[in-house]
Write a structure and sequence with these properties.
With about 300 residues, this protein is an alpha/beta fold. It has 2 domains: about 10-105 and about 220-295, 3-Layer(aba) Sandwich (Rossmann fold); about 135-215, Orthogonal Bundle (DNA polymerase, domain 1), CATH 1.10.150. The protein contains 13 helices and 7 strands. The relative contact order is 0.15. Bound molecules: S-adenosylmethionine (SAM).
């Protein structure tokens, strides 16, 4: 499944990219946004793409080669954006984009357990091949204590039945380790009341979101990533962030406000840009997206 880029024109227009810029795509995935930059500017803009997902980077490479773009790619976490630039011998970026969360390819085809509609191993890592030291959802479910599990399901998922679900997880793992998404869905189902299963939003949505955020340490990565990005942003440079849920958006909003308050930067978007009705109809995944843009003084 191909990923449809969200707020594509709005984000690239809003970054006001010009000839000679270094464009840092902190979440390049298959390269949708970077391809648009390459189409508009060809070799006149240096593209640098970061992603944790190795196979996504391969897709981005293919796409950017077709465009004959000038690009460099790094498999890394964007919380290390400064080191990535250093490695490439580049001092600053003029325009930086973060398009947060996961792509449709990862959700549908990665086999890493992002979707509750499939029966897959419970990894949910952005990295394609997590190592021993990488946290996976399987590890959280089978080793964390009940209270911590409940806290993340509530804190990052806003799940009302977080305590009951955490209790169900601990009871299930006492019988046998929890290995697959199918097993987790069953546990959530048994822990929540029947009317909850008939709601418009699937009863496993919030728990899955919370566990994915936790496994990838997404909140801390975002906070650190924004700081790092800002530290390598050139004067008059812009950074744009597309977020997909309120926790992310709040962090971006507060970070941007703090820079504005310190008179270091100007808010280009006083209110976030949201997708048009047409975009939401064409790509329902864009529904909850918000774009905020900041310019360094
Ligand atoms: C929504 S997709 C980006 C889609 C891309 N802009 C496009 O239009 O094709 C988000 C990507 O960000 C990556 N990602 C999420 N958090 C990251 C982090 N902290 N560091 C690096 N990559 C990250 C994910 O692996 C995923 O590939």
């Amino acid at each position: 499944m191909t990923h449809t880029s969200v707020l594509l024109q709005e984000s690239i227009d809003g970054l006001a990219i010009t000839v000679g810029d270094v464009f840092l795509d902190c979440t390049i995935n298959g390269g949708g946004h970077s391809e648009e930059v390459a189409k508009r500017f060809g070799q006149a803009v240096q593209i640098i793409g970061i992603d944790m997902d190795e196979s996504a980077l391969q897709r981005a490479e293919k796409r950017l080669l077709v465009q004959k773009a000038k690009f460099l790619l790094a498999q890394d976490n964007f919380r290390n954006a400064d080191k990535v630039l250093e490695k490439f011998g580049i001092q600053q970026a003029n325009k930086i984009l973060y398009d947060l969360g996961l792509s449709s390819n990862q959700f549908e085809d990665s086999g890493r357990g992002f979707s509750f509609q499939k029966d897959e191993p419970l990894l949910m890592t952005f990295k394609e091949k997590p190592t021993e030291s990488d946290l996976t959802v399987k590890e959280i479910l089978n080793n964390w204590d009940e209270e911590n599990i409940a806290d993340v399901i509530y804190g990052y998922g806003g799940e009302t039945f977080s305590r009951r679900i955490a209790k169900g997880i601990v009871e299930a793992r006492a019988v046998k380790p929890i290995e697959t998404t199918g097993e987790l869905v069953e546990i959530i189902k048994n822990a929540t009341p029947a009317p909850y299963h008939r709601r418009k939003i699937h009863f496993a949505t919030k728990t899955f979101q919370a566990l994915r955020i936790t496994a990838n340490d997404e909140i801390r990565a975002l906070k650190e990533g924004l700081e790092k990005g800002y530290s390598i942003l050139a004067p008059k440079g812009r950074m744009a962030v597309i977020s997909f849920h309120s926790i992310e958006d709040r962090i971006v909003k507060q970070f941007f406000k703090s820079k504005e308050k310190a008179e270091e930067a100007i808010l280009i978007t006083k209110k976030p840009i949201v997708p048009s009705r047409e975009e939401v109809v064409k790509n329902p995944r864009s529904r909850s997206s918000k774009l905020r843009i900041l310019e360094k003084r």
